[in-house]
Design goal:
It is a single chain. The chain is α/β, with parallel strands linked by helices. Among the domains are: about 5-165 and about 215-275, Alpha-Beta Barrel (TIM Barrel); about 315-390, Thrombin, subunit H; about 400-495, no CATH class. It contains 13 helices and 30 strands. The strands form five sheets. The chain has an eight-stranded parallel β-barrel, surrounded by five helices. Helix 10 (about 440-450) runs parallel beside helix 11 (about 475-495). It is globular and about 100 Å long.
């Protein structure tokens, strides 16, 4: 039996989800009408239903994200949304709030959001014990930690492979709530991690001034796909429900091709959905929004994960400037074009950029020459030719079918068999009419029956045994069209929907005493944990009025490591006097370092 591999793409809306499927996604995840962790990416039930129908044509799945924590008053409304989602055929429900599990939810397979902080063997074992089908693992886990979880659980494991990174352990960030009243666990994070900060040492000296000390590069684990598969991962997730359609097209095709390439040389694996996607461009993740890329601790602490100088996209590395004249410059890059956008870092470390007016014989004429000099390294953050390709119809996805055509004295019949074993047949009563030219008639029949270009199907084989007579083209087209329409009906009727009845039990939770990090905002969640042997000592951070001195972030990312000041290093490049603090324009935070576990905590100290 072959092992299915799944590429999971973001769907900010139904149209983006449809594009993701066209470009090779095996499934997509889309925000519920309310209560998703990306509040501004909410979708109506009708839009979700439209996406579900399209996805199911390819036996691709649609997962609905309803992954915020909920108040007591919101739980009934959330349950109603879940019931509507079930009725429309949603394939999985991504949740964070365990209070939902104390309600009579329909039998939708449950997916534990990464917001549940699925970071240990024990936590994932618990999720499996209580009835979750899948766990979306914490982004910061190493390959070895992922392997250890897989060895001790039979759950499906989903891992992020691309996109923006939360600097905090997922579900454990309270920084936005503390300073803006906008809770990340409620879907409205203000992203203070993308602010500028000063780093202050124990003597009050400003060690680093006005840098993006908590802003991470973007995730890119293309080169790790085979290692993740070997570790037991079978679902690969692209972050980005706030991303535009061009981004989703490019990145989905980028990873889809990589997974296909892996399968070509590993025949015991297959794609989880049907059909073959063919992009009409060359996917390239460097040409779309990125702050620089990182594998983020997958192979250990061997790279710098932060983008200290900018929280904006830098795009694709180009080349350094080799010559400067009054109104143009040259580089060793030979594929720059009129209208491209370039950017660079100034001597002060500021990201700035310009558009190219024209390129003539290798000479690049920018709209602005300010601060450019020989040796300045350039990045292309807007590729006009690539953008035009993505704005067009940029991929086609086809399901292979085998056709069999038979003609007798009274009728013609076309039967089709798709790659999933679904069969359809259409017969038309047409009296046999001897052909004037047998070979020409046969070619005409083949030509018309193989014309599947405006459908989701592609004929891999056409078998025509026996006699063939003259048939008008419109009749052949009708036969093909009606037969394929019937196949589509059969495919949808036989869609392999999964159901999973949730049955409450009393499996022990691995943590006995729970503080605000458990994110308990409603009485149902409190009852859930009590039933599983844990005591909720305090409610969610969102209910706390006194927040000074509280940990508002815990992260595997460490500012000390980023600045070559790691306390575990034998010869650190920079020595910093404790205690360290960071501050933005209004607030100051204490940094604490758990060097044994390589974790950094950010403690809110208030205004200064």
């Amino acid at each position: 039996m072959t092992i299915p591999l799944e590429l999971v793409s973001p769907a900010g809306n139904a149209d983006i989800g449809i594009a993701a499927i066209d470009h090779g996604a095996d499934s997509v995840y889309i925000g519920a009408p309310k209560f998703s962790a990306r509040a501004e990416a909410a979708n109506s039930i009708d839009e979700i239903a439209r996406l579900v129908r399209y996805a199911h044509l390819y036996y691709a799945k649609v997962y609905m994200a309803l992954n915020t924590i909920l108040s007591d008053e919101e739980l009934p409304q959330a349950l109603e949304i879940i019931k509507q989602a079930y009725d429309m055929g949603i394939d999985g429900l991504i949740i964070q709030d365990v209070g939902l599990l104390e309600m009579d939810i329909p039998p939708i397979p449950l997916i534990a959001s990464t917001q549940m902080h699925n970071n240990t063997v024990e936590k994932v074992q618990f999720l499996e014990a209580v009835g979750f089908k899948r766990a979306i693992l914490a982004r910061e886990l190493s390959l070895e930690e992922i392997k250890a979880i897989k060895q001790k659980t039979g759950m499906e494991l989903e891992v992020f492979i691309h996109g923006a990174l939360c600097v905090s352990c997922s579900g454990q960030c309270y920084m936005s709530q503390a300073v803006t009243g906008r809770s990340g666990n409620r879907g409205i994070c203000a992203q203070p991690c993308r602010y500028r900060y000063d780093l202050i040492d124990g003597e009050g000296n400003i060690v680093i001034r006005n840098k993006y000390l908590l802003s991470l590069k973007d995730l890119n684990r293309l080169e790790a796909v085979s290692d993740l598969i070997a570790a037991g991962v079978n679902s690969f997730k692209i972050e980005g429900r706030y991303k535009e359609i061009d981004y989703v097209k490019n990145v989905t095709a980028f990873y889809s091709m990589a997974i296909d390439k892996f399968i070509e040389s590993n025949r015991n694996y297959r794609r989880k959905s049907s059909g073959k996607s063919e992009p009409l461009f060359s996917p390239d993740a460097a040409k779309t929004f990125n702050r620089g890329y990182t594998k983020y601790f997958l192979y250990g602490r061997n790279e710098k994960a932060a983008s200290l100088d900018t929280q904006k996209s830098i795009g694709q590395p180009v080349e350094a400037i080799t010559e400067i004249k009054r109104d143009y410059f040259t580089t060793n890059c030979d594929n720059l074009a009129n209208g491209d956008g370039l950017c660079f870092f100034t001597k002060q470390g500021e990201l700035t950029g310009f558009r190219i007016d024209k390129v003539v014989n290798g000479k690049v004429y920018p709209r602005d020459m300010e601060e450019l000099e020989v040796g300045t390294f350039l990045y292309r953050n807007y590729d006009i030719a690539f953008d035009r390709l993505l704005k067009k119809h940029s991929a086609q996805r086809k399901i292979e079918v085998k056709m069999n055509f038979i003609q007798d004295n009274e009728s013609i019949c076309l039967s089709v068999l798709d790659e999933d074993g679904n069969r359809a047949e259409k017969r038309l009563d047409i009296p046999y009419e001897p052909p004037k030219d047998i070979s020409r008639t046969l070619e005409q029949i083949k030509k018309q029956l193989l014309r599947t270009g405006d459908t989701i199907y592609q004929a891999a084989e056409l078998n025509i045994p026996g006699q063939t007579g003259f048939i008008v083209i419109s009749t052949l087209n009708k036969l093909r069209r009606e037969c394929l329409d019937e196949l589509t009906k059969v495919r949808l009727e036989k869609y392999p929907a999964e159901k999973s009845v949730f049955t409450p039990n009393n499996a022990p939770y691995p943590i006995i005493n729970l503080d605000y990090h458990a994110n308990v905002l409603n009485d149902n969640a409190r009852r859930f944990y009590n039933r599983h042997g844990a005591e909720v000592l305090e409610p969610a951070f969102e209910k706390h009025l006194k927040i000074k001195g509280r940990q508002v972030m815990c992260s595997k990312y460490c500012i000390r490591h980023q600045l070559d000041a790691c306390l575990k290093a034998e010869n650190p490049g920079l020595r910093l006097k404790e205690p360290l603090r960071i501050r933005d324009e209004r607030y100051i935070y204490l940094l604490q370092f758990d060097c044994r576990n390589c974790l950094m905590s950010v403690i809110f100290e208030g205004r200064y």
